[in-house]
Design brief:
The chain folds into two domains: about 5-70, 434 Repressor (Amino-terminal Domain) (Orthogonal Bundle); about 80-225, no CATH class. The longest helix is centred in the last third of the chain and has 29 residues, at about 200-230. It is built from 13 helices and no strands. The chain has helices at about 5-15, 20-30, 30-40, 45-55, 60-65, 90-100, 120-125, 130-140, 145-150, 155-165, 170-175, 190-200, 200-230.
Length: about 230
């Protein structure tokens, strides 16, 4: 999901008049080649926009919503039905153990909201069995391509389509795709631990069971691969 050159240039003229692309890359801690190529080709990634906004001490979401593709996105906490996806497996299991011991879990114990397999776990929260077919029909993304995205980086348009399908806040899609942090999306700093400490225990156990099954598949696949290598 790229943003065109004319829109980006108008934005840059407004927020950083007279600032060259090399300087913007330095301020944003981005590779110079990435910034210059994207802007010159008129195919700028949303993550480049938010990185430049941070470098200019501007609010990343506010700046992103200047562009028509993102104009309707507002800050929001995650929906309860997607919250588990934003907790790494170790944190989710640690929280479950705390609950079984009638203890509370602290936010600092949960790990970062962005981690390997975030996109896959988030997709699973949204999937009712028909989501893969829906993505292929609406966006023309073949299931093998989607499979690869869910294990690397989920494209913004695909993430937004998933959020719409599942009635998740649209801003969650931008966290999953790495465009925004949870704080930039408007999350309360304690929202994940509060969910862990208050969600019905049976539901929490079911979420932990699903996560353990997925981890088991990953471990078995890795072991099979290593055994094949000898």
């Amino acid at each position: 999901m790229k943003i065109g050159r004319s829109e980006v240039q108008s934005w840059l003229d407004a927020v950083a008049p007279g600032t060259g692309l090399v300087r913007l890359a330095q301020l944003s801690d981005l590779p110079r080649l990435r910034v210059t190529q994207q802007v010159s080709r008129g195919s700028v990634a949303p993550s480049t926009i938010t990185a430049i906004a941070r470098g200019l001490d501007l609010d990343p979401l506010d700046e992103l919503t200047r562009f028509r593709e993102f104009a309707s996105i507002t800050t929001s906490a995650p929906a309860p039905s997607e919250m588990a996806a934003f907790i790494p497996t170790a944190g989710l299991l640690q929280g479950t153990v705390h609950r079984l011991d009638s203890e509370t879990v602290d936010e600092a114990e949960l790990g970062g909201e962005s981690y390997d397999h975030l996109a896959l776990n988030w997709f699973d929260c949204a999937d009712d069995g028909n989501l893969r077919a829906h993505i292929q029909q609406q966006l023309g993304v073949a299931q093998p391509t989607l499979w690869k995205m869910l294990r690397s980086r989920l494209r913004e348009d695909v993430a937004l389509e998933i959020a719409q399908y599942a009635s998740f806040p649209l801003v969650s899609a931008l966290v999953v795709s790495g465009v925004l942090t949870g704080a930039e999306a408007g999350w309360d700093p304690e929202c994940r631990s509060r969910w862990l400490n208050t969600v019905p225990l049976g539901q929490l156990l079911a979420e932990s069971e699903k996560r353990l099954r997925e981890v088991g598949k990953q471990v078995r696949s890795l072991e099979t691969f290593e055994n094949h290598l000898g």
